[in-house]
Amino acid sequence: MQRIEHIRLMARYNSWMNDRLYTAASSLSDEPLSAERCAFFDSILGTLNHLVVTDRIWLGRFAAHPAVYQALAALDTLNKPERLDQPMAANIRELLVVRQRLDACLEAFSQEIRDEQLDQPLSYRNMKGVEARKNFFALLMHLFNHQTHHRGQATTLLNQAGVDVGVTDLLVLIPEEL
User: Fold this and answer.
1) CB of 126 within 8 A of CB of 117?
2) What's 123's DSSP letter?
3) For residue 1, what pLDDT band results from cuts at 50, 70 and 90?
4) Torsion angle, CA of 14/18/20/25, rounded to 10 degrees?
5) DSSP letter at 168?
6) pTM score
7) 39, β-bridge pairs
8) Closest among 165, 162, 168 to 37, alpha carbons compared
9) Residues 96-108: pLDDT tens digits?
10) Strand intervals (E) in the chain
11) Which CATH class is domain 3-165?
12) Shortest CA distance to 106 belongs to which of 69, 160, 151, 153?
């Protein structure tokens, strides 16, 4: 599988998994979603919020890539977070709207990326203002890996709350080779 195809697969997987997570999470009321669960970001809602925050941050950084990505213009209407636990919505219903916008943006962005752009470095500042210059493809893979990491935490928290998310494996979306 070529790198561009893999990025597009990961963007589809991201949307698919987020849909599954939010469907599962929406079966709970606001109280259990916001309950402290001794997780990195406290609650189910806090964990899902963190993913919205970091996706917004990374997609904003990707908008500074030397290539121009029209899909990332959609970010202009979304709040730019200033910290990794900044609430992006008051509840799961409002967070879902932001999540769906980010997922649509990420999928559209994945359609615009060209292979020759992947090896270009991307310069950005982290949340503490520290400058970095890193390989664009590696940063894209970090975005997807970070999502998988925290979605795994969210599925565990949901399971502990009695909600089964079901199948979560990327394997489901990998096409058969003929």
Assistant:
1) no
2) E
3) low
4) 160
5) -
6) 0.95
7) 42
8) 162
9) 999 999 999 999 9
10) 121-125, 131-135
11) mainly alpha
12) 69
Residue whose token pair is 């202009």: 76
Q: How far apart are CA 12 and CA 147, in angstroms?
A: 13
CA 76 to centroid of chain Cα atoms: 17
**Which amino acid, residue 79?**
N
What are the angstrom distances between the C-alpha of 149 and each of 14, 24, 98, 99, 168?
Answer: 12, 18, 20, 17, 12
Name the one residue in this structure whose structure tokens are 């894209």. Answer: 140
Please give the Cα distance from 29 to 163 (Å, whole number).
12
Contacts of residue 168, defined as CB under 8 A and 6 or more positions apart, other chains included, come to: 17, 20, 151, 152, 155
The residue with tokens 């649509």 is: 104
Instruction: Provide the H-helix boundaries in 84-123.
Output: 92-112
How many Å apart are CA 157 and CA 154, to the nearest integer? 5
**Rounded CA gap, 74 and 97, in Å?**
13
